[in-house]
Amino acid sequence: MSPSPSQIRRLVAAARRAGKSSYAPYSKFRVGAAVLTASGKIFAGCNVENASYGLTNCAERTAVFNAVAGGHRKLVAVAVYTPTPEATAPCGACRQVLNEFGPNAAVLCVCDSADRIETTLDQLLPRAFGPKDLRS
Ligand code: THU
């Protein structure tokens, strides 16, 4: 089922709120994300950087891991918020992680202007490698 307008509103609000918790002292690039589960729950996350730069976790992955840790493995939508003039789409690593739990998820990226990206995970990561490839 595709998310209702009110679910999308709540999802975007959760992503914006999560951006406030971003820990980004190195890049100063704050990101908030939220995922909507098939059961209608919302889990949020922010980017968490590390002095050992490569250990940084993106906001989208934090949100996905939060949902999975909460027992929810089916994702139907993801919202990403950046406090920038233009919307930012999820990085490649996050696309792959989102694919694991929401291959058909709607993706909505918002920012501090009216600019937005409305797409789907399938469009962002066509012909994705995923769980199905290990079942043959
Ligand atoms: N970042 C995200 O949180 N999500 C993305 O999809 C792209 C990048 C974070 C990682 C790092 O903390 C900062 O943005 C700059 O790359």
Helix and strand layout, with pairings?
Layout: H1 5-19, E1 32-37, E2 42-46, H2 59-69, E3 75-81, H3 92-101, E4 106-110, E5 116-120, H4 121-124
Parallel strand pairs: 3-4
Antiparallel strand pairs: 1-2, 1-3, 4-5
How would you describe this protein?
Helices cover 29% and strands 21% of the residues. With 136 residues, it is α+β, with helices and mostly antiparallel strands. A 5-stranded mixed sheet has the order 2-1-3-4-5. The longest helix has 15 residues, at 5-19. The structure holds tetrahydrodeoxyuridine.
Question: What is the tally of beta strands?
Answer: 5
Q: What letter string, H or E per element, gives the SSE order? A: HEEHEHEEH
How much strand? Answer: 15-25%
Q: Which word captures the global form? A: globular
The order of strands across the largest sheet is 2-1-3-4-5
What small molecules does this complex bind?
tetrahydrodeoxyuridine
End-to-end distance: 28 Å
User: What's the overall average pLDDT, rounded?
Assistant: 97
Major sheet attributes: 5 strands, mixed
Helicity, as a percent range? 25-40%
SS content category: alpha+beta
